Amino acid sequence: MRKLTRNKQFFLSLLVPVIILIAMTVKPLLTVLTGETIYLQTTPVDPSDIVYGDYVDLEFEIETIPLNLLDMGLQKQLSNDKEYFNFDNAKTVYIKLKQNKKTNTYDAIKVTETKPKTGVFIKGELDSSIDQADWDNDKSPKVAHVNIPIERYYVEDNKGTHLEKQSQKGKLKAEIRVRNGYAVIRSINIVD
Predict the structure, then answer these.
(1) pTM of this prediction?
(2) Which residue ranges make up each domain of the chain?
(3) pLDDT tens for residues 8-56?
């Protein structure tokens, strides 16, 4: 076998990191180009980052899941008093979504550990604790929380506060592209 010359070794060593960086962009780019567009209702907070500037930290309605939307396998992992799940760390789950024709947003219809073969779904992580939906009412339904990894959206300086106010009025929705469970935020829209 012939040895590589120094020049070829040098160019090969430069090429490997470039290939790795390009490979990291394939999944988000493929999602943006070929993914399905959906809209989710948001509830943001308005933090600021010294390096990146203003951004909106988003919370989506579909992240708060009533326990009856969990598949049977997940429901069996609930503790006897339904205060927590019998696993220590967050568990990878898939939120199956269905379009609400009235609001044009997508709602959660099922949460499962098994990746769906069809339909619109987002991959997330199920927290091991259960939240009481309403602290003043002991009879309120308990809910689980699923974190989906699209929580930060960067905006122009001084726009975050305006977006937060619009969200508190229920007028803020996120346009998201979803492909095979992977989601990318395209924009945040103010809806009248």
Answers:
(1) 0.74
(2) 37-190
(3) 888 888 899 999 999 888 888 888 888 888 888 776 554 555 666 677 7
